[in-house]
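Checked the freezer inventory, then went back to the computational side. Two predictions to log before the end of the day. The first one is the construct we discussed on Monday; recording sequence and tokens without edits.
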Amino acid sequence: MDLPTAQDLLPRADPGGRAVLRAVLAGIGGYLPETVVSNDDLARTVETSDAWIRERTGIGQRHIAQKHESCAFMATRAAAAALADAGAEAAEVDAIILATATPDEAFPATALRVQAALGAGGFGFDLSAACSGFIYALSMADAVIRTGQARGVLVIGSEVYSRILNWQDRNTCVLFGDGAGAVFLRAAPGTGLGSDRGILSTHLHADGRLGDILYVDGAVGQPERSGHLVMHGKEVFRHAVHRLSEAVDEALAANGLERDAVDWLVPHQANMRIVESIRKRLGLPLERVVRSIERHANTSAASIPLALAEVHGQGKLRPGQLLLLEALGGGLTWGSALVRL
């Protein structure tokens, strides 16, 4: 990525006379477990088929973590890759915000395990918003940079959903995979206008009344329950298309931008039918939609940064491009973000 120079980091004023700091995306990294499980592999253990899964979801395979590939292990690998991509050292990390629904421990926070592994300082915490977690974490990182509490922030999504799935339930076990993705954000000056580099805006929403259509049945506080993911797919799909369409329009309107200004739609990789619905609403050609679901499946909070890492590795991201990120997850939670590279 093209990085701001030391001179660039001196704050400038917006037209209203206020100093503006932007959270600029300086580095991207990802980690996928070594073990790949295809649809045909799953068909040997549960009543399903490659054709059935692909037709309904667009998924062809998923990566499944082995014992040593914990949430913290994968997050550390992804974070180290993001720092390397940014040309940054661990000493530049002032904060680590890690989105996960599958932490290794109730505490300490997985973010602090990553902090120790990297040799970083500052502060860190975990954030739980299911599949919307990365958008939520990105918003928190933007806030701490804008307020001057940090100048370098690692934002990570890391998930091991394979450990909360009922592997006899073909309606859920075929949908998810494991992995981690991360971005490193640097504080840089801005004008307060939509032409700035960095996070332009984030938009977060939740409706707890819909919590029972997508949830995990138990946790530390209720160990007697299954601890498996439960999903009512038709209800989730219906709300996803409606809520995400609203969040997409909200982000563009907040910045005075039209739909054709978007260079890349980077959606949560949950279901290709949902992605296609949002793409059509925006009027974007398919080649401007980042798609990794066929290879990664749904990696929850890790899906957006993993998709970014893949397209970045292909050399397709360019300075000045506008990214529109969106996700919906259990809670229900949903949100969007506009980021200019």
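The second is the one RB wanted added to the comparison set:
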Amino acid sequence: MTVYVCEPDFESILCGVYDAWMSCKGHDNVRLEIGGCGQEMELFCDYVDVVRTEEKSKKVLSAVSRRLSQEVYRKIYVASLSQEPERADRIYRFLIQAFRYGPKISDMLQLPEVYEIFRICRNVYNENHLLVEFIRFSQAAGNILVSRIGPKNDVLPLLSPHFADRLPEENWIIYDENREKASVHPRGQSWFLIDGKMGGSEYGELWKECLSKRTDEAEYQELWKAFFDTIAIKERTNPTCQRNHLPLRFRPYMTEFQR
């Protein structure tokens, strides 16, 4: 067995797909893994680091666009945003079946490879949908709206277009503290992603300075907390129901739960 070890980003996974496919060793004799996800090395396996190049990723995307469909491309991209350590190999197995059956593959959920991609994508979409509702912005100095999130999946690429459409005339930043990356939207312009720690990147010190300046945000936060507590009916409190609609892992990033 030859194991191709790739980075967690979409382009590197595509390069891993290219290397595994072009090795001509047989699909049953190769496997893709994401480096640094804690998998234990197996005996009698050859581990090969995937070299990321633009040429290889473009060839895979070109083949998907010409022979398959945009729906297949969307599925493998969304699956690459998942936190599951096996996502790279799941994408590879899905593409094997996709090139065998063609564009209709998206509807063939009876195939285990297709169902796994469907399950992974559903998990990513569900978390993105929840964050659209639960995300909270705070106003920093300079009229910049800042939000901090900690999602399981890398949903920033899915989350950002929604707020770019809803808040086109606002300067806002959504910071994913789990991946130390941020989505930045200048007013009236397109959003873009910045990788790296907030305190270590070239933009980090500027953001920290903006967040440290005094604004009237604290007063509005207290008003929102008071409203949240006032409308609650203690006699009808149902913690189980609340957890079903609002999982505990989202609450540390929501204003009304900051005490």
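For RB: The chain is about 45% helix and 15% strand. The longest strand covers residues 144-149. Let me know if you want it refolded.
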